[in-house]
Amino acid sequence: MEFVHKSVLLEETIGSLNMKPDGIYVDGTLGGGGHALEVCKRLSATGKLIGIDQDSAAIEAAGERLRDYRDQVTIVRSNYSNMVQVLKELGIPSVDGIILDLGVSSYQLDTVERGFTYREDDAPLDMRMDQRETKTASDIVNTYSENDLYRIIRDYGEDKFAKNIAKHIVLARTEAPITTTGELTEVIKRAIPMKIRAVGGHPAKKTFQAIRIELNHELDVLRDSLDGMIDVLNNQGRLSIITFHSLEDRIVKTMFRQNERPCTCPPNFPVCVCGKVSKGKVVTRKPILPSEQEIADNKRSKSAKLRVFERTR
Ligand SMILES: C[S@@+](CC[C@H](N)C(=O)[O-])C[C@H]1O[C@@H](n2cnc3c(N)ncnc32)[C@H](O)[C@@H]1O
Ligand SMILES: [Zn+2]
Question: Are 5 and 31 in contact (CB under 8 A)?
């Protein structure tokens, strides 16, 4: 199957990096290599791109896409949470720009057997972005307590029927384990009142998002990685992040602000005594959003938000 994925906010993201042709850039969510290719096109022979993804299919597709630039490109299969370590192993102490384009690719969603989509009936409940991991969505659905299921569907899915969905999952699995995306979707439908089901989006969308976030530790990974990425930037180096839902966006917004103004002294202190020094500035007071044209061309871009931080040293 061909790796199809339309890069979101492509020009805006590349523009936001303020690229230097001989700079070193990192794409922490390489995917099909769409953003990375545009970075490569702007590099001179001495510039470099390091591409990271945890998904073997993405690594393969990006390798192919970036073939013409192989002398400048290094691709590493890893979690972006290991970025600083990966760079260290490559002998790179600091970089000029980093891109994160979070979440799953259209390719992952469209490859039915990966189990990310609620639109197909008989895919296994998998949802691993990194196929080397052993825990799958099925383990979450069939072993988490009702309360833990409720908590993740409420917090990561922001579904107001979270309690009822968790209850129906636990009830259904006492009969037989829930093993396919279709079975899970059926159980979720039963937990949502008929009249809401008729008007809302797909009833399983939020629960699937919640399980995917929990399984791949998406929010923890983001939260635990941002400071390290900012630390590894050169003076005027930029970190550009595309998020797809409010939970991710809130983390990026808050952590960018903390890095800009880290001082924790009470406001009535005449001078700063905490000693925490600003790491740079938030370039995007408001996030950059896709144009109406982009949303019309690519539905997936609808919820995208780009935020950019610039390091100063
Ligand atoms: C939205 S796609 C990126 C698409 C890419 N920017 C392009 O234009 O083709 C997100 C990719 O990030 C990867 N990914 C998500 N979280 C990751 C993480 N914590 N570490 C490494 N890769 C991750 C996914 O496997 C997926 O391939
Ligand atoms: Zn202070």
Answer: yes
How far is Cα 228 from Cα 226, in angstroms, rounded to an integer? 5
Ligand 1 atom showing the smallest separation from residue 78 Cα: 21
Q: Residue 29: CB within 6 Å of ligand 1?
A: yes
Query: pLDDT, tens digit, for every residue of 55-89?
Result: 999 999 999 999 999 999 999 999 999 999 999 99
Radius of gyration of the chain (CA): 21
pTM, to two decimals: 0.96
Phi, psi angle pair for 70, to nearest 5°? -60, -25
Ligand 2: distance of its center to the CA of 266 in Å?
8
Please report, as a single letter, which amino acid is at residue 77. R
| Tens digit of each residue's pLDDT (9 = 90 or more) over 122-131 | 899 999 999 9
Q: Which ligand is nearest to the CA of 61?
A: 1
Q: Which atom of ligand 1 is nearest to the CA of 80?
A: 20
Q: CATH class for domain 131-215? A: mainly alpha
Please tell me the distance from the alpha carbon of residue 192 to that of residue 161, in angstroms, as a whole number: 7
Structure tokens at 295: 């949303």
| Residues 92-108 pLDDT 10s | 999 999 999 999 998 89
Q: Which CATH superfamily is domain 10-107+218-311 in?
A: Vaccinia Virus protein VP39 (3.40.50.150)
